[in-house]
Amino acid sequence: MMQTHHEQTTDGMGVTTMRAVTQRAYGSSDVLQVGRVDRPAIAADEVLIKVAAAGLDRGVWHLMTGRPYLIRIMGYGFSRPKGLVPGMDVAGRVAAVGDDVTRFSVGDEVFGIGTGTFAEFAAAKESKLVLKPDTVSDEEAAASAISGITALQALTTVGRLEGGQNVLIIGASGGVGSFAVQIAKALGATVTGVASTSKLDVVRTLGADDVIDYTCQHIDDGERRYDLIIDTGGRNPLSRLRRALTATGTLVIVGGEGGDRLTGGIGRQLGAALLSLFVRQRLTFFVSSESREDIERLAEYLANGAVTAAIGQQFTLEEVPGAIAAMEAGTLTAKAVITVHS
Q1: Is 303's pLDDT higher than 80?
Q2: Is residue 55 very low, low, confident or very high in pLDDT (cuts 50, 70, 90)?
Q3: Fold of the CATH domain 17-144+309-339
Q4: H/E/C letters for each residue in the chain?
């Protein structure tokens, strides 16, 4: 797509190529390479961002491997990925704006959801960006958008959380889970986080009132029942999740972890939705929507300190393959960040 004529530019814009992580086939992290590619063109409703930092979330792994295969059918590329450069979470400075963009100007510091953000420059829809609060670093902002709005929607839009409720967050040390613990606390809930032994202290630091070590404890041990369970892990069978819920509690299954190569966790999710028709408990699942309103709400939480991006390790563009391998091995805590421009 051609760039619009009136674009203003910032430093580095005289160069038409950029460093980026590229992927030309589905597979393990071995399919990723770092090289020079053309700087992206932007449409009339898009913004070009000079990337300061980008977040690494589970969706990047799914699009790298092409698994579950259902995502290929959903339009991301059947035999190979449609997008050359991976990455969606982004924070940086506006380098150029399209003709129809009214909310941003060159030089604005923004964060949100873009396309091909593991690069020096990335395009993003104006509708998927917000201004970055001054008190929030680029790395914190880059770690926040996708995981943060997923946690927010799981708790509020789908989970209908009310203050005073008991909430269980499964996968509390991960990207979505670390935000869910904090947002649930900000909304007045009593929060229990589930994680492995080595990550329990991180979950406590996030503000969880109690923790469960899944390596030696079950969530349905009978000691407590929960009004709302947010399951980001995909390990627990539906029967166990139901036993941990109150009689009229709500389960929200986030994403498509677990399951087989074809459909991922969708079988368990559909089973939950079907069963929900016949029981008093609400058994739900959802895939987050990229809502500007929710990114703005998240920005407010970040600005006032109610929520802090729990950043784990930081990587350079050259280290992205290793970062994704570490995520697959389960050795990352909280949200990993790719630093691009200082």
Answers
A1: yes
A2: very high
A3: Quinone Oxidoreductase; Chain A, domain 1 (3.90.180)
A4: CCCCCCCCCCCCCCCCEEEEEEECCCCCHHHEEEEEEECCCCCCCEEEEEEEEEEECHHHHHHHHCCCCHHHHHHHCCCCCCCCCCCCEEEEEEEEECCCCCCCCCCCEEEEECECCCECEEEEEHHHEEECCCCCCHHHHHCCHHHHHHHHHHHHHHCCCCCCCEEEEECCCCHHHHHHHHHHHHCCCEEEEEECHHHHHHHHHCCCCEEEECCCCCCCCCCCCEEEEEECCCCCCHHHHHHHEEEEEEEEEECCCCCECCCECHHHHHHHHHHHCCCCCEEEEECCCCCHHHHHHHHHHHHHCCCCCCEEEEECHHHHHHHHHHHHHCCCCCEEEEECCC
Give the residue with greater pLDDT, 44 vs 27: 44
Identify the CATH assignment for 146-286 out of 3.40.50.720, 3.40.640.10, 3.30.365.10, 3.30.420.140.
Answer: 3.40.50.720
What's residue 263's pLDDT? 46
Q: Is the pLDDT of residue 245 over 70?
A: yes
| Residue 73 confidence class, pLDDT cut points 50, 70, 90 | low
